[in-house]
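**Archive record**
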Amino acid sequence: MIMSLGPYASFIVTSYAAAALVVVILIGWIVLDYRNQARRLRELARSGVTRRSGRSAVDAS
C-alpha cells in the first residue's frame, strides 16, 4: 500500500529522515554520556570517594 504524498513528497520524506537522524544522534549521545558517567563513578569509587548522602544522621555529628 504505497501512498501518494503529492508535490511535497520530497519535503515530507526529508523532514522525517532529518527527525529520525536527530533522534538517533540523541540516543547515541545519551549512550556515550552514560558510559562516560559510569566510568567516572567507578574511578571515584575505586579511589575511595564516597557519597555524602550515604552517611546516616548519626555519622554527621
Notes: Residues 9-47 form the longest helix (39 residues). The mean pLDDT is 86. Residues 8-44 form one domain.
